Each structure stands twice: as C-alpha cells, then as structure tokens.
From TrEMBL:
<dbReference type="Pfam" id="PF03567">
    <property type="entry name" value="Sulfotransfer_2"/>
</dbReference>
<keyword id="KW-0325">Glycoprotein</keyword>
<dbReference type="InterPro" id="IPR005331">
    <property type="entry name" value="Sulfotransferase"/>
</dbReference>
<keyword id="KW-0735">Signal-anchor</keyword>
<keyword id="KW-0812">Transmembrane</keyword>
<dbReference type="GO" id="GO:0008146">
    <property type="term" value="F:sulfotransferase activity"/>
</dbReference>
<dbReference type="GO" id="GO:0000139">
    <property type="term" value="C:Golgi membrane"/>
</dbReference>
<protein>
    <recommendedName>
        <fullName>Carbohydrate sulfotransferase</fullName>
        <ecNumber>2.8.2.-</ecNumber>
    </recommendedName>
</protein>
<comment type="similarity">
    <text>Belongs to the sulfotransferase 2 family.</text>
</comment>
<keyword id="KW-0333">Golgi apparatus</keyword>
<keyword id="KW-0472">Membrane</keyword>
<dbReference type="InterPro" id="IPR018011">
    <property type="entry name" value="Carb_sulfotrans_8-10"/>
</dbReference>
<keyword id="KW-0808">Transferase</keyword>
<dbReference type="GO" id="GO:0050655">
    <property type="term" value="P:dermatan sulfate proteoglycan metabolic process"/>
</dbReference>
<keyword id="KW-0119">Carbohydrate metabolism</keyword>
<dbReference type="GO" id="GO:0016051">
    <property type="term" value="P:carbohydrate biosynthetic process"/>
</dbReference>
<keyword id="KW-1133">Transmembrane helix</keyword>
Amino acid sequence: YPWHHTQETQLSKFNLTEIEAVLGSYTKVLFVRDPFHRLISTFMQGMGSSPSFSSFVQDVLDSGPRNASMAWKPLVSICRPCLVQYDYVVMFGFFRQELGYLLQRAGLPEDNLLPEFTDSQVQWTYGWLSEQMFSELSLQQKQQLSRFYHWDLAAFPFSSSFLAD
C-alpha cells in the first residue's frame, strides 16, 4: 500500500484489511524496557516537575494510565502486543546481543553499524538506581505502581523488576 505511505499516515486511518496488509509487509520490532526503569529515566531527565522521585511517582499515579505521558504510559497501551504480532521483542539491556542478531538476520554487517553498548554497566546502574528510588516510595505507591503497570509486567519478562513482586 505505497500510496498510503507518508509520514503523517497513522494505522488508524486504514481499514482492517489495509492494516493487516501494511503490518504484514514490515518486520515488526518492539523495544521494551522495565516500566520502573522508564520512570527513573524520565525523572532523571527532568521531564517531571516534581522535586522528589516519590512526588513524581504520585503525579504519575494521579494522572492515571489514560492521561499518562508517553514517557511513562504502560507499553501495552502504546504498542498493542496482543493485536500486533511483533517479529522481535528487544529488551533494554540486551541491545548489543539482540541488535547484532537482527542485523545478521537482515543480511547486514553488524560490526559496522552498531554503536558501542555497555549493557552490563547500564543494567548494574539501573539495578542500583532502582533500589535507591524504590526505597523512597511508600508501600501504597509501590502497590499502585504494580497495578498501573500490571499488563506490562504480565506481557513482558521483567522478572527482576522491583514492580514484579
């Protein structure tokens, strides 16, 4: 359906038959990240106006999933993994390994195209940050966050997430 292909076109503008044809013509890759790490990253980048992580989390919870910013909105509501059959799901923290595999599958030379990733350092840093930030939250906030991201935690293997408990 190349006549529909413009930067402004959204899937919602197509009928069901066209959506299936368009999605079937692409290799679909979904990049996912632990929702708690997404919150930390958003807070650290100053995208929230709250002075503390705890008050930032409360603002997120008060906004609710429907009114949430794209930076912390549950992934399931953005990517629709139950409706779209993704060919690959790439977990944050495993980029080097997984992107190399994807490039290899596409027949591209992986060494020349990939930037240097420090996945193990990123994982360690987020593990430490998660522990620190999680300790700032009340039990009620922890429980509410787990409910807020319930479907993300059910859909993706975030077994080491602080919210998975």
